[in-house]
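User: Predict the structure for this protein chain, please.
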Amino acid sequence: MDTRAHWEKVYGAKAPDQVSWFRPHLQTSLALIERAASDQSASIIDVGAGASTLVDDLIEAGYCNLTVLDISQVAIEVAKSRLGEASKSIQWLRADVTGENFPAHSYDVWHDRAVFHFLTKPEERLAYVRNVAWAVKPGGHVIVSTFGPEGPEKCSGLDVMRYDAKSLHQEFGSRFRLVESSRELHHTPFGTTQQFIYCHCTLAQ
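Assistant: Here is the predicted structure, written as structure tokens:
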């Protein structure tokens, strides 16, 4: 399957608020980022951002060193259009996170809501973790959210992995220290609920 083509089709066919993962505001993600990065000049990357409003809220909170990555150019263009002039202050990356060549030790905070659980092959997860360890500054923060143990087995027609805090943290290994974890029930636009798990780690210095 062509992963990029799949997500271009999804974002091309549906409005941003008509996908199951939509929330008007990612309050949990924003709160975790604000706890991790008290300095508003912190370098933050939102991986698999899609057309989410997290970047809007980060700008509103005063953060000024933001990178948005998604595999779908359609999703990126939706977010750019929504932000208007403010989009010019953002670094936009159209990329597959498992194959991107990130600059070394560039990010204070790595945020991912709902990308990692799509990596069903061990080699994909290994490549992802390798990129996190390379791209995040020593002592930096990694915030990853996936479907929890009672979450869906599929999303957008694709198989997914489900994790609890222990199994998610194990995927990242001993270089990452777990700071906190939490569960969240996400209410979809279609009236259903999905269980998410959030893990916030720091990368060893």
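The chain has one domain: 24-203.
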